[in-house]
Fold each of these.
Amino acid sequence: MPALLRRLCLFALCLALPLRAAELTIDLGHGAQVYRTEQLLARPDARTVNVPDDVSFKRAMHYRAVPLKALLQGAHAEDALLFVASDGFAAEMPAAQILQAHGSEAWLAVEDPAHPWPSIAGNKVAGPFYVVWTDPQAMRIGPEQWPFQLAAIRRLAPAAERFPAIVPDPALKPDSAIRRGFAVFQRTCFACHTLNGQGEARLGPDLNVPHSPTEYLRESLLRAYIRDPQSLRLWPQARMPGFDRQALSDAELDELLAYLRHMSGRKAYPGRP
């Protein structure tokens, strides 16, 4: 057989082979469940979801998606859930936010290998699985709660139990600004940053050791950086999103900074007693 004909035959064979499906692992503590792309796309509860202002694509998008809570059978409202992406991002969310949603609804968008999604900024890909929200403003869903390149979902004990070095002084009153800032930190920062060397994420630097950003940036610059990272350091390849007032109110930003200033006096270095 002539070489050109052999190449054409091999090319036709490759086209005829099914595209390799991706897998998502969900472990809620009673045995891991693995979902494949074709299984999810064929589910009877899969539907087309319209997202008018997608956080990652910065435009309207349409997805084939499954209600996320339908995949979390066995989870409890008091559980914490860790969403692990293949690029190192790890977002922790309370299960109640998904199971007992009031207005906003979480969906697992599933990329069809035959019809891949476009690239997002920096030629990154969002697939194969992506958590998207309808009506995110109803529950003030922040950008860190839209994990893409999703590979696994795991049930966790509360962050304070797993990572004691991120917990503020136990003597603080429950309603103190610092304790409220600790909750804001877990929601907005812990998906990308560690603190005192503790945490699951590996995208951003540690926010307390060797120095807290409250120690080397004056407050006005730190506030501007959190609102719009490019306003302080022009770096098109940077991965940190800005947090506008819809995602992070001025009061919540005050509380976050109170927590970070407090923790700058409670440093714990990884590997040291």
Amino acid sequence: MVVRRGLRSFFITLALYLVSSGAVGYFMFHAQHGSRGLEARGGLQESLRVMEDELKELTTERKSWEQRLALMRDEAVDRDLLEERARASLGRVHRNDVIIMGR
């Protein structure tokens, strides 16, 4: 009887240790390799850098457009800008103009 109790308590203790170490191993594995783990954090930080660079470019472009619109909104419209827009929309060019294709 004493041997059975000792053997039973040994196996119960061993089973508890195995189950708890399995659970800890499972959670540690997913903390490292899971979709929200440490490895995924590096990918998210890289995509954040790319998005921040894109935001800087778009902010610069927006400021450029705001500056051009400010010239159109004033009481006196900038003649050069008006002529540029008219020529672009009509597709006309003066014979003495030099055309530089952009974009």
Amino acid sequence: MRLKVKMKIPKNFMTPVNKGKIARIVQLNTAEVTQKAKERAPVSTEKTNPGGAHGQLKRSIIPSMSSGGMVGKVNATVDYAEYVEMGTRFMAAQPYMKPAFDQQKEIFLKDMKKLLMKEL
């Protein structure tokens, strides 16, 4: 199963301001969520996973944009991404995506408020 975070601008926010400026804010914040998730993603070591691949989860975290830049998504594409984030009955959760999103959403809201106050 893949794990993703999605940031979307409500349509009523787009009317008073230039869509290009909003798209830039969405793009910058999506990039920041990506970076923060990669920084938090656990990486196995030779000690914890002998002979195995290391860093696949971190490398699988990628951003994408859609809807003309109004929607930013951050996906962790390895099959086990959700198990690491949420944990299983055999291993504790090691959240990396939700903490990154939670930290960035405050910045995103401040960026949007600042833009709206400038444009209104």
